[in-house]
Amino acid sequence: MSLEIAITGKPSSGKSSFFKAATMIDVEISSRPFTTIKPNQGVAYVVTNCIEKEFNVKCKPNKGRCVDGKRYVPIKLWDIAGIVPEAHTGKGLGLKFLDDVRQASALIQVVDISGTTNEEGNVTTNYDPVKEVEFVRDEINSWFEEIIRRGIEKYDRIKRTTKIDITDVLTEQLTGLQTSKEQIKKVYDRTGIDDIKQFARDLRELSKPILVAANKIDLERGLENISRIQSTTIPTSAAAEIALKTAEQKDIIEYHENKIIIKDESKLDKKQIEGLGLIKKNVLEKFGSTGIQKCLNTTVFDVLNQIVVYPVADANKLTDSKNNVLPDAYLVKNSTRLKDFAFMIHTDIGNKFIGGIDAKTKKKLGADYELKNNDVVEILTSK
């Protein structure tokens, strides 16, 4: 599982609640700032239509699950310490926060859209969440900028005695941020390096894009505030998602595709029934969902442009070597080449790669074949 997403934001915005809602792992949830110090990590899932229906078979996933034709593909989720203004200079837990961001391919910024906490996570009224969106991004961009400046200083020291390219120096400097040379070169060719602040911002946007989860949408002023945020924003209620999943785990309700069916009202008191009614009215009916799953899916499939590909050992039977049907679902970048995908599965498979077979058409595929969503492929290797 190589795809990792970090949940970021100021203290008390609802990051840990979002994490619990997505993973159902018990973590400390509190209105006290800096509740999260060490990053929580767990497995969440993106949901997509499984290819099993197209082949009229029943899959048997090695990881994740498949329910009613919906494939749940695992990703790694991080809940990291809250960020405050001037975090890149070390204020609060800023440096620790920024270090924890390194491994993520994208960030979900949880914002308190209700405006009931200030920039340091303390209780207030009418705080502007637009400022919250901006300062968190500014801190991450400033962190990038400082690392890039050190790389440029290094390049200036050595450029007279070596022919090394500046993008090579920056690639080495930024290797810990999971930033590729391809991304660095793309930004460098577009903007140059004269304006370091602009270069840092563009590189961060390309290498660690941010989606905004407007949390606490069911509270007063939430709907009013969300309309003023210009970024890619999804309304969410982590508290509602936790309540629904908890009730489902206790076999009180069926909760599937944003629909609630109470299985046994005798297990609920009047207050609980009213609570479920409010979630249905103020969240599900108003916004279509609690937004948690939509945030994960949007980040992976739209922001990161990932697709799902199913490798099999036998293109005719759609099985692996143990006869499990469609056992593996990989998340890969759209248009990934087949040979590169072979290396993702295993180095030995990549080294011995000679071609592939499309399970749908039974046509042979070459090394440069660009994978499409829901491709099912058999990788051919030399003996």
Q: How would you concisely characterize the structure shown here?
A:
With about 375 residues, the protein is α/β, with parallel strands linked by helices. It is about 35% helix and about 20% strand. The longest helix has 30 residues, at about 130-160.
Explain what you see.
By secondary structure, the protein is an alpha/beta fold. It has a domain at 308-381: Beta-grasp domain (Ubiquitin-like (UB roll), Roll). The protein has helices at residues 15-23, 52-55, 94-101, 129-158, 166-173, 181-191, 196-207, 222-226, 238-249, 270-287, 292-303, 338-345, 347-351, and strands at residues 4-8, 40-49, 65-67, 70-79, 106-112, 210-215, 233-235, 253-256, 259-262, 306-312, 330-333, 353-358, 364-365, 375-381. Strands 1, 2, 3, 4, 5, 6 and 7 form a seven-stranded mixed β-sheet that branches. A hairpin with a 2-residue loop joins strand 3 (65-67) and strand 4 (70-79). It starts with a strand and ends with a strand.
